[in-house]
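Need the bound structure for 2-OXO-4-methylpentanoic acid, inputs here:
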Amino acid sequence: MEAVADFNITRVEKSKLAGISLENVPFGKYFTDHMLEVDYENGQWKTPQIVPYQSLQLAPSLAAIHYGQSIFEGIKAYKDQQGNPQVFRPQDNFRRFNISAARMQMPAVPAGIFMEGMRLLIDIERNWIPEAANHALYIRPFMFATDEAIGVRPSEKYKFLIILSPTGPYYAAPMRIYVEEKYVRAVEGGFGYAKAAGNYAGALLASTEANNKDYDQVLWMDAFEHKYVQECGTMNVFFIIGNTAVTPGLESGTILDGVTRDSTIVLLKEMGYQVEERSLSIDEIMAAYKEGILNEIFGTGTAATISLIKELKYRDFIMTFDVDTWTIAPEVKRRMDAIKYGLEPDTHGWIFKI
Ligand code: COI
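Answer from helper R.:
Posting the output first, comments after.
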């Protein structure tokens, strides 16, 4: 074991990498050789450990399993043109992680653990970063409650980990989306803005039912009128109406403050488009479609990057699009990728070098 500043590092004897191809890797299937693990107890974080990727031994009474005090983040690392690792906007994910932690009554993770732990881990695993287009090393920081007791209360003990997974594209093709009116993802006063595990569990039934109808995902609507757009599957969503990009605003607290969402807004403005963060109803979307000014629809997210939507179904009304003619979403993606892969200078301060 070696000690780096406040980290203990135990390395694997032999890397698994030789047996894995980094081309067209499915999302979330393979994990790198090492992981970061830190425990929180008695109001303090203990010494972080970088150890071989391994199973955890957990008590059946573990609080997180019963009541879902569990949060996570998604970040991506890339290689620049010289082969050096770089991470896209991790400080924003770090900030959001602690916003999620506060909402779920969990302790904040200090930058010295989250950011420095991520940096050290990626440095060790740099050979795992895929180089192919649309590929990256997905970084998954997460924290869960580890009290061994089933009383319903905030846990006193927690575990924070970072695992890494080489990944190819999340959605292989443009998506067909079903406008969801039966189930809701988030409500004002709830925790839709937090990256809490429960938000994803609660969404599974709706996406399964959409899949059964041959749709890829749902468009989440507001909880009261089922009329105003929130998110699309696990992504934020943008509608290009005329020359204006419209995306749901964050003020209701029902929408994740996406890092790709924010980057998209910045790039769209630089491309000369007006961007409106506001409520957007399905009636307005249908009217724009009928008028012929609903030009593009796309989702944004770390895992999915920019994903084109080729069909939107609301009740019996089906909106279809010829995505091959689109120029705006592809240009946003091109500009964002150019920064991520170091093809163009990072004029926004988005890149975190390892
Ligand atoms: C991400 O984009 O990183 C996400 O969190 C989506 C994920 C649940 C696959």
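Comments: The helical segments are 63-67, 90-103, 111-124, 197-201, 204-212, 259-270, 282-291, 328-340. DSSP finds eight helices and 20 strands in the chain.
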